[in-house]
Predict the 3D structure of the following.
Amino acid sequence: MLFLLKRQPALVTVSTLTIDNSGAGTVIVDEQGTLTMNTISNPGGVVDIESTGDLTQNGNVSSGTNTMTLDANGNNFIRTSGTITSGSLTLIANQVTNPLVTSLGGLTVNRSTGTLTVTNTGALMTINSITGVDLDH
């Protein structure tokens, strides 16, 4: 179990991550390897999670109405369960495995291969850009 008592950057290596920040503030995680996100809750601030390996969502990930960046740095984003909730999501990955379940106000996706399916229950106002996607309309 990891406890960080100071409000300054800390260098840790983890394979699974659970965050519950009921206060205000930005959460930034830069992982050097694969990372599984369990429940991530930061309703009072921005969430920015990056991994140099595959990034797996295994629970609800929320930044409330604030922005969120999920960056797998050329590796895969794998959704196994949970909803992504954010005012605006930027997702960067080689490919997105399994449909995304979201509640978003804005969406930006940058990916290279595979298909992308998004089910959004929020009031999606803006699709900023989606690269590597064929849109049927």
In short: Residues 1-7 have pLDDT under 50 and may be disordered. Residues 95 and 113 are 5 Å apart (CA to CA).
